[in-house]
Structure formats: C-alpha cells, structure tokens
Records
---
Amino acid sequence: MNEMETIQITIENIPESDLKTKYGSEENIGFGQIKTDRMFTASYKNGSWQDLTIKKYAPIVLDPTAVCLHYGQTIFEGQKAFRTKDGHINLFRAEKNIARFNLSAKRMMMPEIDPEIYKKGLKELLKLEKDWAPKSKGSSIYIRPVMIGTEPSIGLRASNEYLFYIILLPSKAYFPEILKIYVSEEYIRSAKGGFGSAKTGGNYGGSLLIGQKAKDKGFHAVLWLDAIHRRYVEEVGAMNIFFVYNDIVYTTPLEHDTIVHGITRESALTILQDFGYTVKKEALAIEDIIIGIKEGTLTESFGTGTAASIAPVGSLFYQGDDHIINDFTIGSLTKKLTKKLLDIQYGHVPDPYNWIVRVV
Ligand SMILES: *Cc1c(COP(=O)(O)O)cnc(C)c1O
C-alpha cells in the first residue's frame, strides 16, 4: 500500500436539499465571493493531525482566547485548479504550494502538515466539487488552504492545537488591467530576519493602510522597497515583480527572505529562459528603474501571482511623478508569457515541465 491509501478521510453526507444552487450564468462569479458546498478540515491535537473530514462549508467556532486571534498564528496558501476543454480538472504545481505552506508554518511556530494529507484532502475535495469549476475562458477554482492556532491561551506562546482547512472559490477570469503602481517610501513590508516570505496574516494586515491610501489616489497596488535603504525593489501586494530590458529580464532575488517565493515567479523564470531570455535575479534600485523608463531601456514590467497570473505594469508613481512604461500598453513579452502559462494551465498545449496534475 502506498501512503495515499493509508490516509482516511471521512466524507460527511450532505443531503441534496442542502446543496447550493450553482450559478446558471458565469457572468457574476467575481473573485472569491462564491464558495463551493464543501470544505476539507483536519485538526492537530496531542502532536498529530487527525479527524480528516470533508464536510459542509460552515462557520468555525473559536474560543475568544484562541491564539490565532491574538498572536497571529495564521497562515494560508493561494493556488488554482483549471477546467480543461474536455472537462477534466488540472491542478497546477500543488507540491510547491504545500512546501511553501510548511515553510510558513515553521516560521510561525506552527506544526507542518503532512504533504500527503494536504494533497489527498485537496484532491478529494476537488473531485467532489468538480461541477463547481467554471467553464468560461480564463476562469478557475481558486483554492485557499489555511491553518490557524485554535488553542485557548491568553499567555504569549504557540498554540498546541490547530485547525487546517481548504476551501474552494470559483473565480472568473482576472481582467488584465494595466497596473498603475504606487512606490511606497514611507511604509515597509518586511525586513531581513522578519517573516516577509511567510504567507501569514500580519504581512497583509500591515499592508492595508498604505494600500488604501494608494487606491484612494487611483493606484491599483503598492510596490515595496527594501526596509534598510528604501531603495531596492521588493514586490507588489500579492505579486512578485519583473522588469524587462530588451532581452534581459530582472526579478528580485529570494536570498534575503523578505519576499514571498512566488510559484508564478518561478514558473515565469523557467518559461522566459526557454524563450531565450537572460534572467537575472538581482535587486534593482528604484532610481535606476526610473532612469531606465525615461531612457527607454526598460521596455516592459509585469507582476506575477496566482490570482492575477501575469499582470502588466503601466506606470510607477515615485517621488511625485508618474513614470509611464511602454506607453501604458501590454508589452509583447508580457503577452507571450501570459499566453504560454495559461495554455499550459488549461491543457491547451503539452506541459513540458510536469507542472500539471489531472485530478479528475
Ligand atoms: C502569494 C504571494 C505572491 C505570489 O506567489 P504565487 O505563488 O505566484 O501566487 C507574491 N507576493 C506575495 C506577498 C504573496 O502573498
């Protein structure tokens, strides 16, 4: 028997009358407003993961002193599954999400989840919910795995009990808006030695204030600079960032551990190399980027992330001026890269990288 077979999941029966009506038209799916009927849950008690269950999607009851509510023991992932033309469900690079989830867990003093439990729970859930997978072009099932410290304890220490759950959120195609980005000089997101590479609640809570200020001024997102020099470009909201100088593509390196190690970033790097581009993982200084834009040597910029896939960047607002990239149009490399990635994800072209697993 392999390990997958030894993992037992209890699947609770949901009466037909309790199932939600699925959208007739996919027009109004939006992003993350709709949840499917079921969720996968597992709890961690006495040093092990137990009670693996697929049950009806429902609120969670927590003690008011639950550790996650006070001391931030919350981590999550964001990944996607895609419906192919012939009705199968493709899961993209799930093992990467699982590995990153466990890195976030370690950093936040939370227990790792057995990758086989995560994988099997997710696959079984997707199989049961496959009819929720939207069909319209560019749509997907957004997958949100979460872990929270649930033990009641007002004392400052790690929880001894945890809840892991996976929910599925059918999502429409992300509209490829050309991003107007605000470069943050006054606020920072993370510093070397901090926890910037973990997908943990605090990293996002801390970004909301400047994010809203930027939105109020008409910007879509904030570009973070490094905490020490306020100079080197880090990442954007929930996206990594790329800058194209003709046939050389730059993106932020991972070694300082201040940015999230994006799976779309890594996939883009692989595809770009295969396109014949030189990829450089080097931190660029914001003033050099501005010079590159002014002189026309910086030809394109885009962000990468699961939700948005590849998002073209049209301008950077820095020190009072908007710096327009590529006449505020989507660059040819950005287009070509987006198409290649989506074609692989939807199974329109062969997957030379083994990134896709057919779940059902
Ligand atoms: C999730 C995330 C990314 C992108 O990671 P992907 O694996 O490509 O989705 C980038 N930056 C931050 C801050 C994120 O939370």
---
Amino acid sequence: MIPVTKPFLPPKVEYDNLLQGIWERNWLTNNGPLVNDLELSLKRYLELPHLLFLSNGTIAIQIALKALNVTKEVITTPFSYVATTSSLVWEGCKPIFVDIDGKSLNIDPKKIEKAITKDTQAILATHCFGNPCDVDAIETIAKKHDLKVIYDAAHCFGTNYNGGSIFNYGDISTTSFHATKLFHTIEGGAVFTNDSLLLKKMVYLRNFGHDGSEQFNGVGINGKNSEFHAAMGVCNLKHIKEILAARKAQSEIYDQLLFNKKLNIVKPKILDGAEFNYAYYPVVFENEEIALNVKATLERGKVFPRRYFYPSLSDLNYVTKQPTPIADDIASRILCLPLYHSLSTQEQELIARIIIRTIKYN
Ligand SMILES: *Cc1c(COP(=O)(O)O)cnc(C)c1O
C-alpha cells in the first residue's frame, strides 16, 4: 500500500533519550524545558525573532485572528485545507472568497481589491502546497486599505523567499506541525510575528490569559503543547536537512518520469524568488474525468493519491457561496501524488507507469 503521505519518524533511540529526561523531571507540559528548547532551535534554524509553539495549526489561526482583533469580513482563498475557512467561521468572522490564480493556485492579488468592503479587516491567505503567495502584492494592497494580513503557512516549513523564511511575512504567519506535514511534532503548530507586542499578546492567549498564577490578562484559550510533542520536534529538527533533500530528489524523479511525455498535466508555478520546500507533489490533469480515472486506477494498484483540495472551500455548506470558478475547476482535476521520506524510486516508477498508461491508453 502506498499512501499519499507517511509521517517521518526519527530513530527511536533519539526519542527515548529525551523521554528519559521527561521522566526524571516529571514535567510534562506547561512551557517545559523541551518546549523551550524546541522554540529556541526553531528560531535559530528559521532565523526568526519570535515564534510560539502551539497545540496545532488550527488553534494557531484562531489565536492570530484573536490577537489582531479580527471579527468581521476576511478575504481568503477558496483553495486550501478546510481549517483555513473553518477557523474563520469558528471565530465569528465572515470568509469572503477571492478566486485563485490558475497557475500558482494561490489567491489572486489582482482580484482582492474588488472584494474589499467597509467591513473588511484582514486577508487570510494560504501559501498553497508550500508555494508562497505573491506576498509583495498582498502587502501593498493591505497597506493601502489598512488591512491585517495572516498567512496560513501550514505547508511552508523550509520554504524561503528573498533569502529568508516565508514565515517572516504578514502581521502573523501560522503553521502546522501535524504528523502529515514535512516537519512535525505529531500534533502541533506555531505562530510567527516580527512584532514583539503581538507576540506578548499571543503568549497570554495561548495560556488562558494567565499573567502569573492568580492574575489574568484578558480571555485566553489553551493553545499550549506538551513536552512529548516538543521532544518529537527536537528529534525531527535534527533530520530536517535529509527530510528536505529527500522531498526535492523525489520530486525531481517524478518530474523526469511524468513530464515531456505529452500527458497534458501541469504543476503549480512557484513564485519567482522563492526557494520551494517540495512539501507536496500536486499534478493538475486536463479534466476531472482523467483525474478521477487516474485516481481509480492507482487505487486498484494500492496507491492512494489525494484530491488536495476538494471540494473548493466556497462550496462548504456553512459559508455563503461566492463564485470562484478557477478554484472550482482546479479542485475538480488536481491530485497530490504520494510523497514522503521513505518513498522509493521503484514505487515512484510504478506510480508513473500507472498514470502514463491511464492517460495514454484509456
Ligand atoms: C494541516 C493544515 C492546517 C491545520 O493544521 P492542524 O495542525 O492539523 O490543525 C491548516 N491549514 C492548512 C493549509 C493545512 O494544510
């Protein structure tokens, strides 16, 4: 069986060594030494001034919205994981979907201004599949209209733009360290900001608003994460170079196997100036029939690609439907092919053979 993704696991002895310390200290959660260690190591690795390790990437978006006092209309992308939209709705905001660019698969900045109303407070955009949005264009629009910017950078660990981490952009960037992501802490996430006042606010939000043991600074939630999760992150970060290198090599193998074969398939166009992390291997097929045919044939061969992302988020039954024809079209005919650390070249060759056979001879 070849799934779309498999979590990376470090050698067990490395995790065991850190567990030993947890047992000795009997300190399991609440800003323990491993959480601190992970936050410091991540800051150093990503070359970022501030970040907070959180319980997951969804609470990260919710904390970002709360920290920026966003409660009304938010311009967002219809082409992302459901958490991007559901977090907005959960926080009582109204998602306003602006269609994507058909090449980058990210929100199309050229369409943003038309969607701005007197109630618009923020833009929440996803760097889809790890490919950065046009952050410069979005920043210009946000400045002009006095809007906050949050990036859902859940796919972006290891992606750089203009020589620095993509987590540098927006008022706040959020990410997920879920087991399926390139870098993970089993469950987990983070917020990033360059603004130390915002960071302080989020420190309170993450921990029930606690300001010491008996005082509170506003309403907070439990967004903390544990020593066990931090330990997985500390171990995995030591392997990040090999994780990123394997993804890149596997992606290049798929490129060789599948492109220039007249299959009428395309991949998202990566933003100029970006250093991509190869987190996913999305392929856009000519039409939905072919995409579904490929999916079914692969599944018969025990290979399980995923329709990331289907349906388009403007089709969710708890949002007001807004026309997003490009996102709807792409969602209908895109598949993410299996991509994970231990995927072998033979497995990739098998996958490519099935795809080529299905498209050429069906
Ligand atoms: C994974 C993901 C999330 C949610 O992260 P969790 O850690 O699973 O809560 C949010 N947005 C996007 C785009 C994701 O891929």
